[in-house]
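Hi U.,

Before I forget, here's the chain from the pilot set. I'm dumping it here mostly so it's searchable later in email.
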Amino acid sequence: MKLWPASGKGMRPAFAADNLLWWVLALLGVLTFGLSRLKPLFATLFPDLERPVYEQDSFFSLLLAHLKIVGLSSSMAVVAGVAAGIFATRSNGRQFRPLIETLVSVGQTFPPVAVLAVAVPLTGFGEAPALIALALYGVLPVLQGTLAGIESVPAPAREAAEGLGMTPWQRLLGIELPLGAPVVLAGVRTSVIINIGTAAIASTVGAKTLGLPIIVGLSGFNTAYVIQGAVLVGLLAVAADLAFEKLEKRLARWQAA
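Structure:
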């Protein structure tokens, strides 16, 4: 006798997947506020360390600072990438598309550390050079997603819009962007995830991020610090990825409705 119906077997994994985001966020919150309480554990794992838990700043303040830098730099990258992608797909901008793609690709070939080294003499230490480096590094996925999303719009949809007498801007806002939104969102998702991980190196120029325990740990040969910072950055990246996944599913259901 079967204890679970066939539909129940399919629903249980789906239910677990839908709630995975909340489990990851809960774990992130517990560790953010509870790592200091794990001092005995880290002292046991690393008996040679005098300070096995990072205590120079609260992990909550570092998390907020990390989110601030990622949010600002990702917003800059999204605005620049979407605007450049839209311009490159217009009739008067198609001739500039190779140049735009080349410039943006070159911007990502430079390591963020190199961009930070160049930006620090111009802007000083702190968040400014980090924002510049992260924004430059995050533009390419958004640009590629925007180009691919707009180009994925079926030709019949474009022809129908033209037949209705829609202006180019009306076609863009009413047809191309809504239909290409899933692909554009995929590019934004990639950009944000990259920035969450890369933002950790911003602490090398004086910006407060979750990378600060990692940098301090590496410079002071404190493996415990490195683990603590890396775990929080990893959980934040996983949470953001799962959040974008849920957003993409909702967008797909909205388009299908």
